[in-house]
Amino acid sequence: MLDWMRREIVDQGRLPLLFFLLGFVAAFVFIRISVRLIRAQVRWWPGNITPGGQHVHHVVFGVVTMVIAGGGLIAI
What we know:
Layout: H1 2-10, H2 15-39, H3 58-75
């Protein structure tokens, strides 16, 4: 398995794509689990974020994270 990964992923320059895919899948799974826990009203899960009664959609956190990461990459 390690030989295949080195030959097909690392040597071909596809490692950033692999990490992008893994990050996307992990974020998707996390959000789906979060939504299920919010709808089930699980006591220990933080639930919806509603400062001042206004719901903040989960996409806002992704956009802010991308802006910070992009700014950091440009700065470096």
